């Protein structure tokens, strides 16, 4: 016979979704306020205190949701990026290669998006024009190297310690910074992957 469920635990279970919605709304409000201020005044001229005030919350709340500070308000965190990147490889259709899946994934991001919303276009331009944001974006991508190497190894039956796969992962993760600043980012993205395809024809 199963143990009875207390009213307290039931209440906590019912409250959890509401709590998560509140957290998500707070994060969204902070990010929206930050991005609006950054676009209007420039990244370096906006303080975290001004962002918190614009979002009607406390600075401590801002850092609780975005420990990475101002950069994270624009670019998110590594975990979100890593999960999306590895899912693109793991969940690709059976007839799509690993490299094609990675190319298609990057084609939806930042400067490579062919039809971005106006706000997304402004944020992409802000990142490219702001050295601190561009450096942080590159660091976020390259920090996914181990995870990307492992998922490619998993999907191809190869050893995750294979230097060739580690090199490939690093090259892929440098593409957003290198190709994203070209006059035609999408053409640069295709050029990068054409070179990778010649180096790793089986992937």
Automatic annotation (TrEMBL):
Disordered: annotated segments: 1-27
Domain HTH tetR-type: 24-84
Superkingdom, taxonomy of origin: Bacteria
MF terms (GO), sorted A to Z: DNA-binding transcription factor activity; transcription cis-regulatory region binding
Ranges annotated as DNA-binding: 47-66
Species whose genome carries this gene: Amycolatopsis taiwanensis
UniProt entry keywords in alphabetical sequence: DNA-binding, Transcription, Transcription regulation
A Pfam family recorded for this sequence: TetR_C_14
Full protein name: TetR family transcriptional regulator
SUPFAM superfamilies attached to this UniProt entry: Homeodomain-like (SSF46689)
């Amino acid at each position: 016979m199963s143990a009875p469920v207390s009213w307290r635990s039931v209440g906590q279970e019912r409250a959890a979704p509401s709590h998560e919605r509140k957290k998500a709304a707070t994060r969204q409000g902070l990010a929206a306020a930050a991005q609006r201020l950054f676009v209007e005044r420039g990244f370096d001229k906006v303080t975290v205190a001004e962002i918190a005030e614009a979002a009607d919350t406390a600075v401590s709340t801002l850092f609780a949701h975005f420990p990475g500070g101002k950069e994270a308000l624009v670019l998110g965190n590594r975990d979100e990026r890593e999960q999306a990147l590895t899912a693109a490889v793991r969940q690709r259709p059976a007839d799509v290669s690993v490299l094609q899946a990675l190319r298609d994934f990057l084609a939806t991001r930042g400067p490579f998006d062919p039809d971005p919303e106006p706000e997304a276009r402004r944020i992409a331009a802000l990142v490219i024009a702001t050295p601190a944001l561009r450096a942080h974006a590159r660091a976020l991508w390259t920090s996914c190297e181990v995870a990307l190497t492992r998922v490619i190894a998993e999907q191809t039956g190869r050893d995750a310690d294979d230097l060739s796969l580690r090199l490939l992962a690093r090259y892929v993760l440098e593409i957003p910074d290198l190709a994203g600043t070209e006059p035609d980012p999408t053409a640069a993205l295709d050029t990068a992957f054409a070179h990778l395809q010649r180096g790793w024809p089986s992937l």
